[in-house]
Design brief:
The longest helix has 16 residues, at 132-147. This protein has 295 residues and is of the alpha/beta class. 37% of the residues lie in helices and 20% in strands. It binds pantoate (PAF).
Length: 295
Amino acid sequence: MSNDQQPIIILSGVELRAWLKSRRLQSPGAVVGFVPTMGFLHEGHASLLTAARQSCDIVVLSIFVNPLQFGPNEDFERYPRDEQRDLAIAAEYGADVVFMPQVEEMYPERTRTTVTVSGVTERLCGASRPGHFDGVATVVTKLFNLVQPDRAYFGLKDAQQVAVIEQMVRDLNVPVEIVPCATVREADGLAKSSRNVYLSAEEREQAVILNKALREAEQQLRTQRDAMSSQELAAQVTARIQEAPLARIDYVEALAYPSLEPISSFTEAEQALIAVAVKFGNTRLIDNCLIRFNG
Ligand code: PAF
């Protein structure tokens, strides 16, 4: 569903709060949906906006490349940005307001408060990107406090991020419903990601191995659930990914979801996450397969 109107662009938290306050006064009981992003929007983000537009009265999109969630040698400086294209997509998918703060607006002076979620952040990206989830949990807490949404929409390509936010919201009694949305993929199965633009043609071609390896593992797990250990499954996915000569594996793990704890037996788990992070050249891609065993 799209909006006939251009979204309102707001740069400051004070203005955002004032705008939302007046909208809530005009429409008491209006449901506010929130889609937090780092911009360079693609169909994955569009699907979050579509889900928000379908079930909320007011849709807020934020675009903020959050320095706090990037490590010192990561891609904060070169993270892709395209403001005009993002605004066109925001209008097409019906955002009412786009909040685009500068770094100084979100972090006006040295930040002294950090939100740390333990447990679910110990493995996967939490282990290979130290501090990443502190940055995510801190910025999402700040954005939730500014927007005070009823519902917030997150893509399951970052399944660990969803688990972290859900844990944080429960622990801190944040009154928001987290709505996880399915990963959107290219026709050949590669998960949509803002970072896909970094890939060379050859890397892009080989990157489809991630989805292939995950689908095969899912198939195997569904048919031989009681015969496979998580280590065997991870070893199988690793071997399949290594068939792509340019792939350099960061991690391949099969864990219980959403606890992200090791699985001793798949027969005891209600949900399992097979998650991978793989570098092609300088581009680190993540993907996963979330398996619900009963349904
Ligand atoms: O998923 C993202 O794009 C970011 O981690 C988020 C949730 C917008 C926080 O910066």
